[in-house]
Design a protein that fits this description.
The protein is an all-alpha fold. The protein has two domains: 2-454, no CATH class; 462-521, no CATH class. The protein is built from 27 helices and no strands. Helix 15 (240-247) runs parallel beside helix 19 (326-348) and helix 19 runs antiparallel to helix 20 (357-369). The radius of gyration is 25 Å and the shape is globular. The N and C termini lie far apart (65 Å).
């Protein structure tokens, strides 16, 4: 009887499996639908776009045996050219000659070459061999994503240790079924698949980030930091998470990141020279001003190019960048400022609380969308975020009061998933039209996901807003001392209701007793 009660407690019931089945249908149904439309109109899309990839074409690649070998050498080709150039007499002018003069899009930091050279030293040199290595890392990423889902889902079903250790009970668990599906989703999640078929080193970053998420959820901050630090040596986007960790006081996470990032950077300086490492900053400055106009760049920079660039952005130009445009440059800089603020401000006004997983995920999204170049495959790191949210949201709504908000959250997660998980070729045809924004489905999906994550802590910016109102109120009072007439027209009490409301606002569902109490100490 005890075993039966334990099994029931773990949620091994038909309705739980039915719920998981419905979730899987909702998740993969739109992929099949979009893939079917793409296949029906394949001829039309192939006549306009230089790429096509649907759920069915993914299956063809896997079943056709081309998966392991990959299709292209997007990262390997330019990295190999960089290594060859470094062996010449002009090795101290890597970016001046290769990037700016020859137009070779080696946009990686010098530290990214260390891993490639180490692999070359053990005989892994050919592009096909590197793609086969990517295929192996792809499998590891699939396993890690499945474990993430299992860790989150089993807490929902509240399994007892004695029962969860039994293999038969484990297999019968709906959490286990969901974890298997999550692991398999790596093979149909378009951004990750695109990185694999391009021959992209982004596959390494996808695995490193998935591992960092797993360690973060298990409260192993140092290990999570180690992996993020390694990812930063390949591409600099996730480096913002180190600054984020400093602002949140996550010492072990920051220490872990520094433990891998700093030694690799020091090695890169000795190996490739100080000048090449400093010159890479000029490459980043150039990219922040010009960006990329190709339709696969799902960033605000890309969207602005589509509206104001006036070029054909459906065709990939390998050795040319978009023409400089002041509107694009200023608009991209403003968008970057906004999302960097969203990334850093919560840590500045955290009021003593520790960052939740949602804070970590929101910072990750901000680090991607704040970049002027955010290719489709850069959004592959969002898969662990979706897996976490789906596993955490799984289950019936517990009260009528929570039903509207929970339904809204789940709908938003679904819409975000549809926009990010699949390549939607017919939206790409909108590039260059008044509806160009709709072509940035990965960007839009990421922004929706960011709103969902931020909705878990709606009061994060309350201290900032409160301090702003308090400052304005203080300025008005000082101003009234010199201009009494103005004081009669604009009484300082106009701000009083807002400040009073902010004083009593709670600190969120997890910290109901931590509101912005510092306001009561201000001399208003």
């Amino acid at each position: 009887m005890e075993a039966v009660r334990a099994v029931k407690k773990c949620g091994f019931q038909d309705r739980d499996f039915a719920r998981v089945f419905v979730v899987l249908c909702i998740a993969f149904g739109p992929m099949v639908f979009i893939g079917a439309i793409s296949e029906l109109d394949r001829a039309q899309f192939r006549g306009v776009l230089t790429q096509e990839l649907s759920l069915f074409s993914i299956a063809k690649h896997i079943l056709g045996g081309s998966w392991a070998a990959g299709l292209q050498s997007d990262s390997w080709l330019v990295m190999n050219k960089a290594i060859i150039f470094l062996s010449t007499g002009a090795h101290d002018r890597l970016y001046e000659e290769l990037f700016f003069k020859s137009g070779v899009r080696f946009q990686y930091p010098p530290s990214s070459l260390i891993g490639i050279e180490l692999l070359s030293a053990v005989g892994i040199r050919k592009f096909q061999t590197l793609n086969e290595l990517n295929s192996f890392l792809y499998i590891i990423n699939s396993i890690v994503v499945g474990i993430i889902c299992w860790d989150v889902a089993r807490t929902h079903y509240d399994c007892e240790t004695s029962v969860s250790r039994r293999a038969s009970s484990l297999v019968r668990s709906p959490a286990f079924a969901l974890a298997i599906a999550a692991g398999c989703s790596v093979y149909v999640f378009y951004p990750i698949v695109r990185a694999q078929l391009l021959g992209q080193i982004q596959v390494w970053i996808d695995l490193l980030y998935s591992g960092a998420v797993l360690f973060w959820l298990r409260s192993q901050r140092y290990a999570a930091g180690l992996l993020i630090g390694l990812a930063c040596t390949i591409k600099p986007q996730l480096g913002l998470l180190i600054v984020w960790g400093i602002l949140w006081g996550e010492r072990r996470f920051v220490l872990g990141a520094i433990s891998t990032f700093v030694p690799v950077m020091i090695l890169a300086v000795f190996r490739y020279g100080v000048h090449n490492n400093i010159e890479y900053l000029r490459v980043l400055s150039f990219l922040s001003q010009v960006g990329e106009g190709y339709f696969a760049n799902n960033s605000f920079n890309g969207v602005l190019h589509w509206y104001f660039g006036g070029e054909n952005y459906l065709v990939w130009m390998a050795q040319t960048f978009p023409k400089p445009n002041n509107i694009v440059t200023i608009g991209s800089a403003f968008a970057s400022f906004v999302f960097l603020s969203l990334l850093f401000i919560p840590g500045l006004v955290r009021d003593g609380r520790a960052p939740s997983p949602s804070e970590f995920f929101a910072a990750t999204i901000c680090s991607v969308v704040s970049s002027p170049v955010a290719w489709e495959h850069h959004y592959g790191i969002l898969l662990p975020v979706f897996v976490y949210l789906v596993a955490a949201e799984l289950g019936p709504i517990k009260s009528r009061e929570a039903a509207p908000m929970m339904t809204l959250r789940r709908t938003a997660i679904f819409i975000s998933w549809v926009l990010v998980s699949s390549f939607i070729p017919f939206t790409s045809l909108l590039v260059g039209t008044p509806l160009s924004l709709l072509a940035a489905n990965f960007l839009i999906g990421a922004l929706i996901l960011l709103v969902v994550l931020r909705s878990e802590k709606p009061d994060v910016f309350t201290p900032l807003v409160a301090s702003t109102y308090a400052t304005l109120n203080l300025i008005l009072r000082r101003f009234q001392a010199f201009t009494p007439n103005v004081a009669n027209q604009v009484p300082s009490s106009d701000f009083a209701p807002t400040i009073q409301m902010l004083e009593v606002s709670p600190g969120g569902p997890d910290h109901p007793d931590q509101g912005p109490n510092f306001l009561r100490k201000l001399p208003l």
